[in-house]
Amino acid sequence: MSREAWLIIGVLAVATFAGAVLLAVRLIRARRLLGALGANGKVAFYGALLYTVLPVDLLPDPIYLDDIGVLAGALLYLNHLVRQRRAAGRPLPGQPDTPPDPGRIRRPVR
Predict the structure, then answer these.
(1) Would you say residue 105 has pLDDT above 70?
(2) At a CB cut-off of 8 Å and minimum separation 6, what does 20 contact?
(3) Burial of residue 51, with CB atoms counted within 10 A of its CB: 0-12 exposed, 13-18 middle, 19 or more buried
(4) Is residue 57 classed exposed, middle or buried when 0-12, 13-18 and 19+ CB atoms within 10 A define those classes?
(5) Which of 5, 45, 70, 97 is 20 to 30 A distant from 36 in Cα terms?
(6) Model confidence, pTM
(7) Iron: is it a keyword of this entry (predicted)?
(8) Model confidence at 96: pLDDT above 80
């Protein structure tokens, strides 16, 4: 292959790796919600992280598209669980029980 083709392949590999890392970071940030989301949320979280870290993949490791798909799917599922919990009226950890009233926002005193 030509030098340009190798350069394109290298850039694509770096871009997909960066995308997988960004999704993994977002998934790890969602970890604080796992206690409230139950066993299904924990399975999705830890399953996606294990699939990303372990060397057993559907596609070889230089191609991170399957890892990106699993991480994105786990994030979408966790988002779905959060929306279900909010719709049921149950607060998430670290959030107030009732949403703030926009008419009662405190303004700084001058």
Answers:
(1) no
(2) 52, 64, 67, 68, 71
(3) middle
(4) middle
(5) 70
(6) 0.64
(7) no
(8) no
User: Would you list the domain boundaries of the chain?
Assistant: 3-91
Token pair belonging to 28: 């790890």
1-65-24-70 Cα dihedral, nearest 10 degrees: -160
Q: State the residue for tokens 């029980």.
A: 97
Rounded to 5 degrees, φ, ψ at 64 are -95, 15
46 contacts 56 by C-beta, under 8 angstroms: no
Amino acid at the residue 93: P
Query: Rounded to whole angstroms, how far apart are CA atoms 71 and 27?
Result: 7
Tell me, what DSSP letter sits at residue 17? H
Instruction: Provide the Cα torsion 13, 19, 25, 69; round to 10°.
Output: -100
Task: Render pLDDT for 7-33 as a digit per residue (tens, 0 to 9).
Answer: 888 888 888 888 888 888 888 877 777
